[in-house]
Every structure is written in C-alpha cells, then in structure tokens.
Amino acid sequence: MRITSWTMRRRVLVLFTVAGLLLAGIGAFAAVTAIDSNKNLDVLLDKTGPMRVAGQELYSAYLDQETGVRGYALSRDAKNLQPYEQGVAAEKQLLARIGELNGPGGRADIRADLEQVRQLAGQWRADVAEPVIAGGTAAAGAGDARFNALRAAIDTLQADILTLRDEAAGAARRTASVLVALEIAAAVILVLVGGLMLLLLDRLVSRPIAELAAQVRRVAGGDYERRIVSAGSPELSSLAGDVDGMRRRIASELTEVREARTLVEAANQQLELKAEELGRSNRDLEQFAYVASHDLQEPLRKVASFCQLLQRRYAGQLDERADQYIGFAVDGAQRMQRLINDLLAFSRVGRLTSEFTPVPLERVLTEVKSQLEARAGDDAEITWSDLPVVEGEEPLLTTLFVNLIGNSLKFRRPGVPPVVRVSAEREGDEWRINVRDNGIGIEREFADKVFVIFQRLHPREAYDGTGIGLAIGKKIVEYHGGRIWLDLDVEEGTSLWFTMPATDA
Questions:
Q1: DSSP 107
Q2: pLDDT in tens, 58-69
Q3: CB 193, CB 19: distance < 8 Å
Q4: Number of independent structural domains in the chain
C-alpha cells in the first residue's frame, strides 16, 4: 500500500509509534547506563576513597610498629612498645577493612597485594620485631630490608587502588557522556517528530484546508459550477467530495429554483393582471349597484306614490279584485324600495370609508341598544361585559351589531322573552367576539347560506326583511380584517362569532 494513500490518523499513529519505540530504546539504554554509572560512582565514593585512606593509615601503623621496636631496642623500656602494640591492632583492623571494601568479587590484584603485605609484615615481625621484644637482636641487615619490602608492598597496594579509582572515574565519565548523548538523541528525535508533525499538518491539513476554504468561498460567491477538490489527506479528500456533492445538489436546486421563480414571476404577473381586472370589475359592479339603486329610487318612488294614491282614493270604489291588485302593487313597490335601500347600503360598505380610529365596543353597544329599544320591547334583555377597544369605523361597527342583535330580536321563540349576550375573549393577536341569543336558531345545513346576500331561510309572511343583514355584517367584518362564522355546537338559540384585530395601544 502506498504511503500517499494513508490517512492522516494512520500517518500520525505510525510516526508516534516509531518515535515511541526509539525513545523507549533510548530510555532502556539510558537506564542501563545510569545503573553502570551508579556502580562506578559507588566504587569511587564507597570503595577506592576509603581503601586509599585505609592504605595510608596502614602505612602509618607499620611505621608505628617500627618506631616502637626501635625505641624498645634502645631503651628496653616497656612503655616504648605501646606504639608497636597499637600499630599491630590498627594493622589487623585496616587489613580487614581493605579486604572488606574490595569484597569477594573485587579486584584480584588488590587481594594479592593485601596477601603480600600480610606475608611481608609477618616476616618482618618474625625476623625483626619479635626477636627484639624477646630480648635478643634482629638478624644483621634484616630489619631495613624486610621493612623496605613491606613499604614497597604497601606502595604497590596504593598504586593498584589508585588504578581502580582511575578506571572507575573513567568509566563514570564515559557513562555520563553516554547519558548526555542519549539525551541529545532523545531531543533530536523529539525535534524531528515535531518537525515531521508540523510538516504533515501543513501539507495534509493546513494548506489543503485553506485551499478548500478558498474554493468554498468562490462557490459561495456564486461560482456554483466550480468543482471542489482537495490534494490533502484522504479525510480531506473525502470531505471535499462531500462538499462538492452538496455543491452539485445546491446548483441543481438553484436551477430548479430559478426556473420556478421564473414561473412564479410569470404567474404573479398574471395574478396582478387578474387582480387588477377583478378590482376594476368589483369597482364597476359596486358603482353599477350604487348607480342602479340610486337611479331606481326616483321612478320607484313615483310608482309607489301613485299606487298608494290609487289605494287611498279608489279603495272600495272598484271591485274586490281591483283592490287586491292595487294592494299587490303597493306591497311590491315597498318591498322593491327596501331591496334597493339594502343593496345601496351593501354597496357602500368599504367604498365610502374614513380613517380607522379606536372604537370602544361598550359605547357601540350602548348606541345599538338605544336604536333597538322600540323593537326589543320591555321584555328583551341585551347585556354585554368586558368588551375591548378595537380599530375601525364606528358607524360600520354600529351597523354590524344592529344587524346581529336585530336578527336575535326578530327570530325570537314565541312566548319566550329574547335574551342576547355579547362577550369577547383574547386569542393571540385578535379578539373573538360572540353574539349569543335564545331564539329559534339556525339549522346546520343552512350555516353557509345565511351570509349570502338576499338569502332567506323563512317565508316573508313569517318574518319581514330582505335577508341582507348577515351579508352586510360579513362584509363589514371582512372590511375590518376579521372573519365571521356560525357556531354549530350550541344546543339552543343562535351563536355567531366574529374576529377583530387586537391592538396593544
């Protein structure tokens, strides 16, 4: 497998594994070297130094022995043997000390030197010291020769101890150099690993990420057709592939969005044209309704006036059928006048407008109750509570409540005093206002018909009116930005809801 195909994680893992193995080897070698260095230092501090001191003291002990023997030989005074006796005691201790310091696994030449010193010291005492102490004399020329040989043996011992010290010092210096070299090697390995790590990060992460970011910025700037690639680690190459896939999807969706926007713009233009035509048609229809109803007023008044004049002047002078025909004509003219007036009122809603102002519905209901007082009679009950202040046209809102409450008074149940209650509740950014009565109610199947203009649910003989009241109410509510509907879940009477935008003022 080619190294270039390795992931960044694998490369870092291999780099740190190799570095860790090298550092572990250096650490193990350094530990062994440190143990050897400690041994050499132990030899210097705990062996060679005390051994040299003991060797010098041993030499002094032999000098004391020689001095004591010489003094005793000259004076024959037992006091002069004290240095000899002290020297012999010190000799035993120092020889044992040097042998102990050298140890069983110590240098053989030092052990040989110690043995040589013991033999020569024993010969000197046998040939020189003991005969003199016994009262005799030493063999001629034996004293100086034996003691000089003993002194030479001690010098050889000191020289071998010094050689041991020099070897231990040299070994300590070498191990110290090795430790320094190992530290330098470890530092070099760390520097190399750090350098390789920085190189890997720069070549496989930093620069490829910067290049990838630059490509992404160019795509974000509008060059959606530019392909996104990365020459970094396999992870970044995979990331670049994912980003490029996202770029392709975005480019494809943007193409679809542009096409859809073109279609939407064309549709909006068509809608604007249709809306303009519809607005113009509505204005023309409203103008036509207003003009037609207004222009029909004069000839209709003449027809109604003359029919009423015929009814007053010639009633009873013609036959019964003629009186019936005249009555039909008067009633038709009057109904036609009411229809025209209602149509005129319907066409005026939203056409003849004024500024919206804060309107307290409490005041509107007070005015409505006053207007409906004659129709309500003494037994009717019209109540309201906690009504809000809304933005709108007060005359139109008055007309709205006159129509709604007027219907409640009109469609009362026989023999039951009408009760009308008006309430309001806040829901989000709008007010929900309810007009509830205890009248005859409206069947579920007629829920959508009651708001159609001139739609009647009862014959004219049962209830008067043209059937335009709720249609006008619906138009007023929608003009104020609300909606109106019939509550079908009530068990008795009629419940109408409509909404008005709420203001926080």
A1: -
A2: 889 888 888 888
A3: yes
A4: 2
